[in-house]
Amino acid sequence: MLNYAFKRILTIIPTLFAIITLTFFLMRIAPGGPFDEERPLAPAVLENIQASYGLNKPLIEQYFIYIGNLLQGDMGPSFVYRDKRVHEVLAEGLPISITLGGTALLLALIIGVFLGSIAALNQNKKTDVFIVTFATFGITTPNYVIAPILTLIFALTFSILPATGWGSPSQMVLPVVSLALPQIAIVTRLMRGSMLEALKSDHIRTARAYGLPITHVVGKHAMRSALLPVLSYLGPAAAALMTGSIVIEQIFNLPGIGRYFVTSALNRDYTMVMGTVIIVATLVLVFNLIVDLLYTVLDPRVRYD
Amino acid sequence: MRLSYFITFLVVFSFWFSIASAQIFYRGNDGDPETLDHHGTSTTSEGRLMDDLYSGLVDFSEDAKVIPGTAERWDISPDGLTYTFYLRDDALWSNGDSVTAHDFVFAYQRLMDPLTAAKYATLLYPIKNAEKVNLGQLSVPELGVRAVDNKTLIIQLEQATPYFLEQLTHQTGKPLHQKSVETLGDQFVKPGNLVTNGAYVLDSYTLNSRIVMTKNEYFYDAENVSIEELHFIPFEDRSTCVRAWEAGEVHVCSDLPAQDLERLRVYEDSLRIVPYLGTYYYALNTTDEFLSDPEIRRAMSMVIDREFLSEEIWPGMIPAQSLVPLGINNYPSGSPETDYFNMSMLDREDEAIAIMARKGISKDRPVTVELMYNSGENHKNTATAIADMWSEIGINITYKIRDAAAHYAYLRDLGEVQVARAGWIGDYSDPYNFLFLLESDNTGFNYARYNNPEYDSLMDKASNELDLSKRAKILQQAEKMIMRATPFLPIFYYSSFTLVSPEIENWQSNVMNKNPTRFLSFKKSG
Amino acid sequence: MTETVLTHDNKPSEGVVKGRSLLDTALLRLKRNRAAMVSLWVIIGMTLAAIIGPAVSTHSYDEVYNHFVGEKPSIGAYPKQEQITPITERALSRARVDMEDINISKDNVKISVVNRKQEPLDPRITRYLMRADIFQNVSLEILKADPQRGVISADIKPLRFLMGTDQNGRDLLTRILVSLRISLMVGALATGVALIIGVTYGAVSGFVGGNIDNLMMRFVDLLYSLPFVFFVILLVVFFGNNIFLIFIAVGCIQWLDMARIVRGQTLQLKQQEFVQASEALGVNQGNIIKRHIIPNLAGTVVVYMTLLIPRVILLESFLSFLGLGVQEPLTSLGVLIAEGARYMRNDPYLLIFPALTMSILLFALNFLGDGLRDALDPKDR
Questions:
Q1: Separation of alpha carbons B114 and B185, rounded Å
Q2: Distance from the C352 Cα atom to the nearest Cα atom in chain A, whole angstroms
Q3: Model confidence over B57-86: pLDDT tens digits?
Q4: Does the complex come out with an ipTM higher than 0.95?
Q5: I want to staple C150 with a disulfide (CB 3.0 to 4.6 A). Which of B300, C49, C142, C310 is the partner?
Q6: What is the pTM of this model?
Q7: Would the CB atoms of A163 and B236 count as touching at under 8 Å?
């Protein structure tokens, strides 16, 4: 197992490198550049700017310069936030996104697993129908609908919580809830499905036939295998949550990094695109590794040689 | 005894403290700046920051008139080519240094230096040799700006430019503290490093969260600056700003979403919708086979019911009847009238249908034209409504929608375009700033690829004319020419949309959409 | 609580007859599940509505009613009585004539007008009223004694907007029907592609295991980390704005989750006795995947599919927002909901109706999914 973990960690580096290379050349195929805006620049000025960022050099040379800087921990200057380097920009926002996403993830995991199990144990009863209904609404309703409604109720009508901003715990409530709701819904659905599955499996039936108490059977045996599909989902979902959400950040005016994933692509902020890709890639690789390792813990039958 | 002293102290202290902290002005802005180095800026939201941080030779008053800034007076030579500025003796930087003519020379030279790669260097091209310096054809010291002594600055121009003072109000005309820029390099913009000469000084800057400024005690007019602390809060989503405003978390929203305007009318005086110096238009590619016919272009313009668009589709915008917007300076009798705007909508439609019929095009025998716009709710609604109007004269529209970067790159690279959405906000208040868009050598902006030597020569003539009223007549002639040829099809004049808290006093909405914080104050309570 | 589950599980399936194929059994079981059957009919109904609805509707999805911009939903016909006067006034003011008197009966109006200029009335002014969407058979009778005055008579043309009109003055119901068509197509297309690639890939990867599994999963990781927005921008460059090609491509990205989940389950199944027994008996690997692995995966896959369809539909709205998805005047459910969210505080019905349509569709998909899972479950046979 340790051996396996070590091997996996080693494969992360070449994978990351392949991603960086692929993205670097891919993004340059897209039309438009970082300085194409509503107010176009005079051609002479554009040339000056491109030269100052080294964008006039051959692409392959730019690539090697970028990799060289990256190895020294420099992600280059942002074309949109010109006073800062890309890693400085990301370092400012990442802790906020991780706090938000992490809290939402935790909520989703706890509430989702709980609700899903309850629903499965009460299959086709009122509780089940209620939970499934809630979950379906959660999945159907996008963030950009939930978040303004919550703001309308709690911030504008009852003035209990602030509508925007970041800093105090009260400012975290609405964004975390809006972020967590769809995830709770998805985890609930997955959990309910896999728990039903698990309850039907032979060893659970056997355990119950022996008359073991239901809490014990569910808590100890069924839960283990039922969690597997949820984990498979949560690996990438965790990476997505922790890298922020542009919708939530815009609606609550939060200084997270979610916005950069979209704006950097739209602004052709090349260095920022690379920065965000590196962060996502690293998180995805790490979380997937964790999930795979958890598999072996939760289900002893799964082994890696 | 001791205890009561202590309590009294606490009470007094907390009272003082609550007053001090209550006076923070939360000002919503359209977004974060690209940089706080004003040579790298280009947007109006960045201009707002610079107007509070720096004082140029001339500044904007509370109603956006040009007033003396760091220069208390100036002389203009009779030929209009030499400007001599006399700086105030009490003009100081935020670290106590005196603001000298050398700081301005340094700033303007740096602006034009090709190595600075300033986005808006073109704005001060009227300065002698500026263009050549910026293109690297002349060395930097040859720029026509020099300091006679510490407090006297002479600027020489390439040709007489009647709107030069207005151009100097732009953020590119602001000075720089030479010493800190030279010693700190690109770090000079960081909080703690940035030395400014305006009403405020930078305190801190958190990306996507807030830019905090405090009153600059060295500012020459500091005694009249009322607001002590100022937070600029960037909002990427205008609806979010409206919610924050309604929740009392910001005092001002700098732009508003169109769909909320009706609802926001309940706030009466807080909702400000005023004309803004800009035009929203469709560019018609004059080199396109179908659109090369000026009569067809004219018919397409005639049939657009702009009143309907500005009443129902994009409330608050003003129906445009010319390329140059209303309320512009140096244009005493305004834009020339275009005949069909006096006709009834029906007559216009009939005439347009007749024109198209002569070309063999009608509702039953339509042609297909591609309309390109950048994604956005208002652009979409406007395009949909206009396509509906064009269908009456036999033009079927297909859409090509791109994100802004791709849209403008496509326009700039002169890709295959038929009709393209665009807009122009004036950098300074002069008709030339709009009419130059269609000069044939203006490759960057002339999306219509309009090429009319007659128009070019008129524009040249206007540039060399010193007499303002004669010049206005020439420009009018030029505008008349393009309104007839219709390479651009003006749709709206822009409006600025602002929400201002009733707690804020002296917010005078104006056509430049400029409201420097130094003139604002909190309403005295009680 | 316990008993129910047990009874449910142990109930002997009457439909199981020896020799009946997997599919027959599943269908039979599905038929007995009432919620699933109702859902199936709802989905069929919605699909039919999407296919023929726009053609049957009295409005066209791109027809703009300039006088009915952002109208509230109503069972009654437009124009409302109180709307007639303002609409008439506005139309007439464009004609530069003033209204002196208006007489509204149930389906007809008589308007006395006077020219603002000292000139006889232009008979063409009737066209202003005809253009006003609400009138038909407009006629003008100019007074002989005073040609500056006249009486216009017009029939009121009743229009129905059951769900109101949008911000451009288009019938919302018709637009929802069209959007349903697009969203269903997009959802089916992308999910189908994702399903085929994801299940095959995941099952193979999990079953084969070892270095090949490792390599295959690293490839999935690699695709995960690519910037999605850029990927789509590139697709638009290559394919133009063809939404269907784009969604086949979106399916090509969305299979990743499916592959991971399927792989996880396969790893687990591989250890189970019946699979190991088959292996020991020398059944070839392809057959094991087909006979044992995939049928046992059906439950999870179906549940995940019901999650994937809404996600694809919402993804489409995000792309449309960037101008890369469905193009005006066509629309999709996701686009309607996104627009509705913007107008939520002013015209809530613009959000409610599309959201309701989406919810019903997804509820039906869900219950059908659950039913299918139960029906396909080999353990329940």
A1: 16
A2: 10
A3: 999 999 999 999 999 999 999 988 999 999
A4: no
A5: C142
A6: 0.83
A7: no
